[in-house]
Amino acid sequence: MSETADPLVLDFVEWIAREPRAYAEVIATWKTSCPRLTIWEDAADRGFVARETLPGIGLIIAVTEDGERLLRTNGR
């Protein structure tokens, strides 16, 4: 990966990597009123996390293979 990793994106992907998180939990935990601070949207746009629907659980956010690679590359 040639681009420099954003520390907040790294923190977010690392948090998601601990366990898939319910969409509502992600929104509640990482919400912001600043339209320029869109950490979880940036991580999703870059392919580090993805939305999935699990039967009986609902919509979750989980780390992708690219997200796992990002964490390994950055010593996380």
Tell me what the structure shows:
This protein has 76 residues and is α+β, with helices and mostly antiparallel strands. The protein has a single domain (7-74), classed as Winged helix-like DNA-binding domain superfamily/Winged helix DNA-binding domain (Arc Repressor Mutant, subunit A, Orthogonal Bundle), CATH 1.10.10. Helix content is 47%, strand content 18%. The protein has helices at 7-18, 23-30, 39-45, 65-73; strands at 21-22, 49-54, 58-63. Helix 1 (7-18) packs across helix 3 (39-45) and helix 1 packs across helix 4. The two termini are 15 Å apart.
Query: Which strands sit side by side, in order, in the main sheet?
Result: 1-3-2
The total tally of domains equals: 1
Low-pLDDT runs: none
Shape: globular
What is the percentage of strand-forming residues? 15-25%
The level 1 CATH classification is Mainly Alpha
Count of alpha/pi helices? 4
Structural class computed from helices and strand pairing? alpha+beta
Main sheet properties: 3 strands, antiparallel
Please state the average pLDDT score. 86
What is the chain-wise order of helices and strands?
A: HEHHEEH
CATH architecture: Orthogonal Bundle
The CATH topology is what? Arc Repressor Mutant, subunit A
What's the CATH H-level superfamily name?
Winged helix-like DNA-binding domain superfamily/Winged helix DNA-binding domain
